[in-house]
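Tokens in:
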């Protein structure tokens, strides 16, 4: 799993970004489930990285939405 850079998100376009957001949310839900059941995650920083990527995409989508309103 690699970090998505803001330039890459902007280049994706809104539809691809929304699809990637859903994919990341599903993966995050899975990782949280593993952690809640007491399983040892293979990568301890993965949940934090996923949360940051979700926030990064949401921020870009909200910026694009605000840009379209003005």
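Residues out:
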């Amino acid at each position: 799993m690699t970090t998505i850079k803001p330039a890459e998100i902007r280049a994706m376009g809104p539809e691809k970004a929304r699809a990637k957001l859903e994919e990341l949310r599903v993966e995050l839900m899975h990782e949280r489930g593993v952690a809640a059941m007491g399983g040892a995650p293979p990568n301890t920083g993965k949940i934090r990285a996923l949360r940051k990527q979700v926030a990064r995409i949401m921020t870009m989508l909200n910026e694009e939405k605000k840009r379209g309103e003005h």
